[in-house]
């Protein structure tokens, strides 16, 4: 049975399709804007007034209903679309210099010979190193339409002579799968960083490859994965669940219930499955882990997830800006709402919930986590107790490893010293390292 596809995050909806506010309310807003723009003692920016008014209205609803202007919309949607136009590098700014961290394989920068460790000093005729320039301004100079050319001059191996590369911009893929490899002869590992338009295809290809290598067990790592497209979560869960098993359903005041069920085409419906989660696993990550937990398909390991159970619908505005409006809640197969409590108009405390969890001890001790009996549910096959109303509580609790970031380590990171030394090592020993470690597996 095929999915009943849910594209709430992908749909393009005309605002005119929705009920308009009453004439009286609409006139009140129009009169206020007219009065301010016409009579206020100083000149005002009408566009900013309108944008601030929209943001003000949405701020009073819930923490996930938002407004983004044209540029913000472009920046936010690019990672989920699976590609953008650019030169194909990942970089870090250390002090005041752009260091190339990775050259995307097959991208335009790799084709002309740009390498990890290069310092980009100039873009076209503009010096970007040693000057006070925002990272966003540098990115805007590197990005551009497919087929256009950009010139970059780089310093390599600390030699003073700059090397010039003329790069033809192209479509740059943004992969949602960070890693896919065999941990041992029977156990595969997948690390997913987001749920994007390309996630389903990436996962299918990775599972097929790992199965050819003998995979019988799988570790799915969703730690730090803040979500993305709802349909990508459905596609991923479908790889693990049996035919017609419910994955998730959504329902709202003006949104009738919609179910998404698994098909019969999952590549890993049998075999041991572990899903790694933490407090950064949200939204689509919680849909997948919630479905796997409710059906007793695998073991959820880690710490309580973020707790985002609200569904946003994008409402494009004529100028290219966007309203993301919460229109429904999503529910796991047992009927759990994973949305954690929030106070309308207080998004700051909501987003800082991690600090409260840390303060109350729940990052270290499972016993510090309390759920009301009213939020108690049973899994569908083994009748185990699970809870709703505040993220997915893992089956196996792993406390936060506070030794990962000592104050000393945190200071080194803040000053960029670790990355800088890594770059220096690459400058000194690039050829030797490439000869000794021909693959990432050999380096590991």
Task: Please provide a written account of the structure.
- It is built from 13 helices and 21 strands.
- The protein is an alpha+beta fold.
- It folds into three domains: 83-173, Pdz3 Domain; 177-310 and 330-402, 2-enoyl-CoA Hydratase, Chain A, domain 1; 407-443.
- Strands 3, 4, 5, 6, 7 and 8 form a six-stranded antiparallel beta sheet that branches.
- Helix 7 packs parallel to helix 8 (284-294).
- The two termini are 42 Å apart.
What is the CATH level 1 assignment of the largest domain?
Alpha Beta
Q: Beta-strand level of the residues, as a percent range? A: 15-25%
Could you give the distance between the termini? 42 Å
Low-confidence stretches: 1-19
* Largest sheet report: 6 strands, antiparallel
CATH architecture of the largest domain: Alpha-Beta Complex
Number of extended strands: 21
Q: Which homologous superfamily in CATH is the superfamily of the largest domain? A: 2-enoyl-CoA Hydratase, Chain A, domain 1
Output the radius of gyration: 25 Å
Mean of all residue-level pLDDT scores: 87
How many domains? The number is: 3
Please state the structural category.
Answer: alpha+beta
Query: Given the structure, what is the number of helices?
Result: 13
Instruction: Label the overall shape.
Output: globular
| CATH fold field value of the largest domain | 2-enoyl-CoA Hydratase, Chain A, domain 1
How helix-rich are the residues, as a percent range?
25-40%
